[in-house]
Amino acid sequence: MAASYEFPSDLLAGQEELHQVRAELLALLKRLPWSVEPLDGFSDDTGWRKVERPASPGWTEDEQAEVEKLRRRERELAVFVSCHRFWDVVAAEDRMDARTRLKHVHEGEGNDEQKEN
After folding, report:
1. CA 29, CA 91: separation in Å to the nearest integer?
2. First CA to last CA across the chain, in angstroms?
3. Per residue in 53-88, is it b (16+ CB within 10 Å) or e — as a string?
4. Which ranges in the chain belong to alpha helices (H)?
């Protein structure tokens, strides 16, 4: 039988915000041009696969600031979650399982509601 963990509310909130920040950062990076600095496009078919990039206008100062803000918050949350005092009370051999469960705890919440319906 798998162990269950009673994660503190601040740890759960930190993990949830970390998921949100990472999703927001990924969405932003997908929208932005491929290069931070303005660069000409290129095509290279000399490698094992062809690589092509259109010209990049670069990122605006606001876009660069937004990426940096999200990356900074992502680092803060990653440190908060990974160094939380909760991990001191979890047996060393159970920490990997507990960490995995914490990462996916938000997925289980929706499943519980579906099971009840």
Report:
1. 38
2. 25
3. eeebeebeeebeebbeebeebbeebeebbeebebee
4. 9-31, 61-82, 86-89, 95-116
**1 has pLDDT over 70:** no
Amino acid identity of residue 113, one-letter, is E
Answer for the pair 41, 54: CB distance below 8 angstroms, yes or no.
Answer: yes
Q: What's the CA angle centered on 35, arms 33 and 41, to 5 degrees? A: 85
Q: How far apart are CA 117 and CA 108, in angstroms?
A: 15
C-alpha–C-alpha distance, residues 24 and 40, integer Å = 28
pTM of the model: 0.82
Give me 75's structure tokens. 């680092």
